[in-house]
Design goal:
D-Maltodextrin-Binding Protein, domain 2; about 300 residues; 11 helices; globular; two-stranded antiparallel sheet; alpha/beta; Arc Repressor Mutant, subunit A
């Protein structure tokens, strides 16, 4: 990097390159749009390259811009690694363990995992961020979080997914449903009724796990609607729009009185995964300890 180029130039460039919109990028880096645009033009002038194709309708990265975005991201990842290594040496400035929680997970075992970890590693701050499954994958790839919890994400060569724990699958029914008075339900009998499903984009892991159950126990289940969140899923069942299934952990946490929970005759479990980025030299010590800790809750 030449001496006239600062990290500020690259940080602003990454914001514009990812947003492809100067107004949104300016809001993201908390400066006015005019100085942001001037900084990008200054970077192009210093390096003698064109980073964006500009028109009245859209902003497009040039091949040079795409390459700079790739390399700038690597640089900022490297800087975060350096910061972590330095801070880990000085216990007075211990870097937090950053955890992403996707899919609206609110199971008792998740809280147990976090609380027992804090007791084991009280000198390491714990930073928890809620996000969507797709956002978790991006955050892990960019090393913006160290680990995450999800019902599962699409296969990715960079992301490691391991079973953290599981809960039994239970039936969810509105109180007036004809099966609501049963003490135990066979899955096939439940799936004979219209079911609520999870949105594949917002809750991919949960949708795929539920689809696997439906394929195994029903020839042609009827999907009455889709929900983007677990709260929306339970609300649709409570409203009477269809029957549902959920893990027993979430139902214990929610304790909804407008939904009847009935155990299933079959032993079927919903799996919660712990995820982290694959590293060629292995994960750092603190993260390795946390991953082992999470898997002890199975």
């Amino acid at each position: 990097m030449d001496t006239g180029t600062e990290l500020r130039h690259l940080r602003y460039f990454v914001a514009v390159a990812e947003e492809l919109n100067f107004r949104r990028a300016a809001e993201r880096v908390h400066i006015d749009q005019t100085p942001l645009s001037r900084t990008i033009r200054d970077l192009e002038k210093k390096w003698g390259v064109v980073l964006f194709e500009r028109s009245s309708r859209k902003l497009v990265l040039t091949p040079s811009g795409e390459k700079l975005l790739e390399e700038a991201r690597k640089l900022f990842v490297r800087l975060r690694r350096i910061k972590r290594v330095v801070r880990e040496i000085d216990a007075r400035h211990r870097e937090p363990l950053r955890i992403g929680v996707a899919d609206g997970i609110a199971q008792p075992k998740l809280a147990e995992c976090f609380s027992s970890w804090r007791a084991l590693a009280s000198n390491i701050p714990l930073e928890i961020t809620e996000m969507r499954a797709a956002e978790l994958v991006t955050a892990l790839r960019r090393e913006e979080v160290d680990a995450g919890f999800s019902f599962g994400v699409p296969d990715d060569s960079v992301i490691v997914q391991e079973v953290a724990w599981s809960y039994p699958l239970v039936a969810l029914l509105p109180p007036e449903h004809e099966l609501a008075t049963r003490e135990v339900l066979p899955v096939s009998e439940l799936l004979a009724f219209p079911m609520i499903a999870c949105d594949l984009v917002r809750l991919p892991g949960l949708r795929l796990q539920m689809d696997a159950v439906r394929r195994q126990y029903a020839e042609s289940p009827v999907i009455a609607g889709e929900a983007r969140t677990l709260a929306g899923y339970v609300t649709r069942v409570a409203t009477g729009l269809g029957a549902g299934v959920a893990d027993a952990g979430h139902m214990a946490a929610l304790r909804r009185t407008d939904v009847v929970v009935v155990p299933l005759a079959e032993s079927i479990h919903i799996t919660t995964c712990v995820l982290h980025k694959r590293q060629s030299l292995g994960v750092h010590d603190v993260l390795q300890r946390f991953l082992v800790h999470a898997r002890t809750l199975r």
